Amino acid sequence: MTHVSAPKRLSQLACGLLLASGAATCNAQAAGPQPSPPDAAASDPAKLGWMVGAPPPADRILRFEDGSYFQFPAMRWSVAHFRQLMPTVNVSRGLGAPVALPRALRSDIDALRFTPLGAQESMTWAESLGANYTDGIVVLHRGRIVYERYLGVLKDDGQHGAMSVTKSVMGTLGAALVAEGRIDASKRVADYVPELAQSAFGSATVRQVLDMTTGLKFSEDYADPNAEVWAHAQAGSPLPKPKDYTGPRSYYEFLQTVQPEGQHGDGFAYKTVNTDVLGWVIARVTGRTVNELLSERIWRRLGAEQDAYMTVDSTGTPFAGGGLNTGLRDLARFGEMLRKNGRFNGQQILPKAVVDDIRRGGDKEKFAKAGYDLLKGWSYRDMWWVTHNSHGAFMARGVHGQRIYVDPKAEMVIVRYASHPVAGNAANDPTTLPAFEALARHLLAHPR
């Protein structure tokens, strides 16, 4: 491996942590115009041979400690192998037999055409897979698998980083506890976690955390070395800190340092630390870590095929903001449960009120203040992105192209894992959004 200086190595590591956790972008290392990344075929991690051999060749070894694991195109391998590189905790599926998803594969989806946003020429669904650097995608229609593809190094029995799709899973757990009366969403965070009383979160309500309308002094300007997001990444790193390091050494310690800026409730502002706080509230209320609760409340009851897992900080705290890794079909089971109003595998896993609350969405005017040009008319509720389109679709979104898309009218669920070279979803939304909507229309028009 090429030698990397200590400051640059720390920055690369923090950058990788940020992106893996759900940051929108990370350009601290950028200096001038950057070359265009190789396309999906040229960056195929299986063809490039990352981490193959005993040991792999020196120029194909990836490490967490130096940040090399999250530099493109190497990250296309890493997103399907986080457990190999960093500490994790399990989300057990339990000991019961998995519940098979019925299959009714269709041959008419790859040829489906749509026009990307802002484009003049149409493209096919099959072409969109490469355009979005898809690692795996499953489509359910009326609960049956009608389409399934795996590319790169992700296999049907493998697991992949969900990135900020994790937030929507955590938001679902939080909303369930609210529906059951175990959490009062109108109470202040400090009522549940007194350690946060002196932080910006202390005076925020749980509802403001769930909908990310908190007023926080938390910059996510990754070009600014003094931005709080860097301190968050360093606090959450499980690696040993430098001898002269005096900052927070865990996610919980960092959250106590976040200061207020602006007024809670004024507008939507997407910040990962909100989900970290929600995870702390959930753990305090239930006496379970979020990975344990996810296993007990959902994963064991879904009839999942595989255990999931979550990355952790140096104290073993699961990263609620972006640390979940799952098998693709198990994520599809989770999405189908929501499409079925919380019911799956012959049982009511979540209260119907949870799905009703998500589907209603949040405050559109508050959401509009965040300035998402491609998401006009959308809102955010319980850490889900709500389209308010004619189909009532709602979505979980993670950087580099991770998705759960639930379309109730079309009776469709799409789950996708990807490794797009650009972290921010504005890079793939012009292709993703019209593709998903076109497939929903197609399935409505041509049911089988």
Structural features, described:
There is one protein chain. By secondary structure, this protein is α+β, with helices and mostly antiparallel strands. The chain contains 16 helices and 17 strands. The strands form 5 sheets. Strands 5-4-17-16-15-14-13 form a 7-stranded antiparallel β-sheet, sandwiched between helices. Strands 1-9-10-6 form a 4-stranded antiparallel β-sheet. The N and C termini lie far apart (53 Å). The model is unreliable at 1-13, 19-25 and 27-31 (pLDDT under 50).
Total DSSP helices: 16
Quaternary state, please? single chain
- What global shape is seen? globular
Which blocks of ≥5 consecutive residues have pLDDT under 50? 1-13, 19-25, 27-31
In total, how many beta strands? 17
Helix content: 25-40%
Given helix and strand content, the structural type is alpha+beta
Question: Biggest β-sheet, characterized?
Answer: 7 strands, antiparallel
What is the straight-line distance between the termini? 53 Å
Task: State Rg.
Answer: 21 Å
Task: Give the averaged pLDDT, no decimals.
Answer: 93
Our estimate of the beta-strand percent is 5-15%
Strand order of the largest sheet: 5-4-17-16-15-14-13
